[in-house]
Amino acid sequence: MHCLLAVCLLSSVAHAQLSTTFYSRSCPSLESTVWAVMKQAVVNDRRMGASLLRLFFHDCFVQGCDGSVLLDAGGEKAAGPNANSLRGFEVIDAIKARVEAACPGVVSCADILALAARDGTFLLHGPTWPVPLGRRDSTTASQSLANHNLPAVNYSLATLISTFARQGLSPTDMTALSGAHTIGQARCTTFRDRIYDKSNSNIDATFARRQQRTCPISGGDDNLAPLDVQTPRAFDGAYYQNLMAQRGLFRSDQALFSGGSQDALVR
Fold first, then answer.
1. Are 77 and 69 in contact (CB under 8 A)?
2. Are 192 and 217 in contact (CB under 8 A)?
3. Which residues, if any, are the signal sequence (predicted)?
4. Among the options 15, 58, 125, 148, which is catalytic?
5. pTM for this structure?
6. Chain-centroid distance, C-alpha 34
7. How far apart are CA 109 and CA 254, in angstroms?
8. Is 58 a catalytic residue?
9. Which helix (H) or strand (E) holds 226?
10. Residues forming the annotated binding site for heme b?
11. Separation CA 222–CA 84 (nearest Å)
12. Binding-site residue positions for substrate
């Protein structure tokens, strides 16, 4: 990866506070550069906005938003939740190359990933937000932490709450962040158990049959289905409407609306 150790040069700012103006003098073209590459990336592949948001989440949940998921060494890319499913590395490389041409040795890949996730969300009609900058890139990655920290698609509500709590995130944070599943697609292998489980009363039967057309009971593991069946290409509130209709694709999605503590917030 071109992003490897890009900010080791910045040892003098190791303890600096994050700031939205961190690069205002050292790389004033940073945000416009990220935006230009992301705009083209989403035009070329609309799914890329979701993929980069997920990449950012999988980076932050392991050992902080430090770019460790971008490292080839350390095995984080090969962790169970990441292997053969994370996408968008080439977009981060393209942004990094353009940023390096303008501001060599200045901007961290962790900051680039944070900006790319924000811009990808906005390009899919979601919100935008100011991104505090000044992160340093990690020199190490951790496969074991990725396997331990990243939430699984079959987690119960109680397990989800405890998993997010380890990151200092409340159940409200968890339910809000889960709304990112209003965009993106999932592989058949990640939701097959839910749609074929005859004992599962927490799934709309019509929805299950529809997903079965995409995801056979055997084979087709890499067939894709949208996480949000209503508006799969737009960042909106339809994800929560799906949960109220028992149309969450993952067990961990539907767990947020299952007669438990998060039902009122989902509504």
1. yes
2. yes
3. 1-16
4. 58
5. 0.91
6. 17
7. 34
8. yes
9. strand 224-226
10. 181
11. 10
12. 151
